[in-house]
Specification:
336 residues, four-stranded antiparallel β-sheet, alpha+beta, 13% strand, single chain, globular, 11 helices
Length: 336
């Protein structure tokens, strides 16, 4: 999820085992440890833009890296605590325990989003994604923030327990909504007499009400939005785009070129959901993601510059939305 939520979750976990007199320092330690895993965003190469997306949320988010990540956080914080506290209130062992808790769920909570993490690396190098919650969810983050602040101000770890309980219940709600949304997406595909080869259903930005359905049938990718409601389910019909197949659609790019290798890397990262952006003959996008649930308007993609076959492809973000898109999206959330 976003870095604020990562830090808050780490803070709440550290608060949950703290003694009353340790609550405030546990909050800071847990918050810092919760951020450390996302330091992998700094791994990049000016000449190879795809390196960043391949390694972001990779080894640092593995459950097997948790003890080492916590140790890194503790080693960074130990001299800071010694410098700014006349009498260090924590032993290194206690500091490490707080860091361990603060770091422990960084990989898991990111796996609950639609982006996913390499949660079981090095045993399994696949990106694990549960699609339970949006990368940004104001309800989840807001309640967690209130709990962490109240626990910090009042020296009451029990409030952190309540915040963590809410987070667990909210993720269970995500499981419930995901199953309902998946059923709606499959029903929609069946009504079109489509054989679904791959399907991704994930929550749209900042809510658990409207879900983006993306599936491959034949050589076409179909995008729609579904809203599993309390009394009424709604389907918002989207659009479709031809699936990009490198062996067929990149025959004019030599297979031994750097550009072709980058196409295959991007295809793996996107789990095969790649297509040329409508209206742009050089932008290859990851169709799973868009700022608008029913549109094929990629959130990120690579530029296929055939004049630079032996240079790495440019990787860019495309977050622009129109006022009409935002208005329609709000209408979907409210069931209109």
């Amino acid at each position: 999820m976003d870095v604020l939520t990562q830090g808050l979750l780490g803070a709440a976990l550290s608060q949950s085992i703290a003694h009353k007199k340790e609550t405030r320092i546990a909050t800071g330690v847990g918050f810092f440890a919760g951020l450390i895993a996302d330091a992998d965003i700094l791994i990049s190469s000016p000449s190879d833009p795809l390196l960043n997306i391949e390694l972001h949320r990779h080894f640092s988010h593995s459950i097997f890296f948790i003890p080492f990540g916590a140790l890194i956080a503790a080693l960074i914080l130990w001299p800071v605590l010694k410098r700014f506290f006349n009498t260090n209130p924590l032993t290194f062992k206690r500091l490490y325990v707080f860091c361990l808790l603060g770091y422990s769920l960084s990989g898991f909570i990111d796996s609950c989003t639609s982006y996913g993490t390499h949660l079981l690396w090095p045993l399994n190098d696949e990106r694990i994604t549960f699609h339970l919650i949006s990368i940004i969810d104001p309800i989840f983050t807001g309640v967690l923030m209130i709990a962490v602040i109240k626990a910090w101000r009042n020296h009451r770890p029990r409030i952190a327990h309540i915040g963590l309980l809410f987070c667990g219940c909210y993720l269970l709600l995500g499981v419930f909504q995901l199953n309902r949304a998946t059923d709606l997406a499959m029903e929609l595909a069946s009504s079109r007499q489509h054989d679904v080869e791959q399907l991704v259903v994930k929550p749209s930005l900042a809510n658990l009400l409207v879900w983006r359905s993306t599936y491959i049938s034949g050589e076409t990718i179909y995008v729609d939005a579904v809203r599993p409601g309390i009394t009424e389910n709604k389907i918002y019909t989207g659009s479709s785009v031809p699936l990009f197949i490198p062996e067929r659609d990149a025959i004019d790019i030599p297979k031994d070129s750097v550009l072709y290798a980058d196409i295959l890397r991007f295809e793996k990262f996107s789990d095969g959901f790649i297509a040329m952006e409508p209206g742009k003959d050089d932008l290859l996008g990851d169709v799973r993601y868009s700022m608008t649930p029913i549109k094929i308007a990629t959130l990120w993609g690579i530029t296929l510059d055939k004049s630079k076959l032996n240079k790495h492809a440019y990787y860019g973000f495309y977050r622009a939305t129109s006022p009409d898109d935002r208005k329609n999206y709000t209408s979907m959330i409210f069931g209109n």
